[in-house]
Automatic annotation (TrEMBL):
Domain called HTH arsR-type: residue spans: 5-99
Annotated keywords: DNA-binding, Transcription, Transcription regulation
GO MF entry, a single one: DNA-binding transcription factor activity
UniProt protein name: ArsR family transcriptional regulator
CDD domains: HTH_ARSR
Pfam families: HTH_5 (PF01022)
InterPro entries according to UniProt: ArsR-like_HTH, HTH_ArsR_DNA-bd_dom, HTH_MetalResp_TranReg, WH-like_DNA-bd_sf, WH_DNA-bd_sf
């Protein structure tokens, strides 16, 4: 029973990660971090066509990342939980640290090449 739950959780985890793996979807999540927006507002803010934004929002909605609310002719989207913002921010911090480490390593290598008189 616990293995079933663990397997389901891993599957859900993978599905959410796949959903946020798209750069445009990350932009949408970032835009929604401050609150609900209509599709039109998202398109204007991000420079997306309505059909493109709707496709990405559909994936985010299917994965349970965003909620949709219809009001007249407009559909408004909001994040289902602030935890997705925290997760995205944590990943961004991890990647920024990794890039900084790589840059430091590159500078150390370049410095060593100069010290050794190497031209790589």
């Amino acid at each position: 029973m616990e293995q079933d739950i663990a397997a389901q959780l891993q599957e859900l985890h993978a599905r959410v990660c796949k959903a946020i793996a798209d750069p445009k979807r990350l932009l949408i999540i970032n835009e929604l971090r401050d609150g609900e927006l209509s599709v039109g507002d998202l398109c204007e803010a991000l420079g997306f066509s309505q059909s493109n934004a709707s496709q990405h929002l559909s994936v985010l909605r299917e994965r349970g990342i965003v909620n949709a609310r219809r009001s007249g002719n407009n559909v408004f989207y909001s994040l289902r939980s602030r935890k997705i913002v925290q997760a995205v921010d944590l990943l961004r911090e991890f990647l920024a640290e990794d890039l900084a480490d790589q840059a430091m390593l590159r500078r150390a290598i370049d410095s060593r090449e100069v010290d050794l008189g190497l031209d790589l």
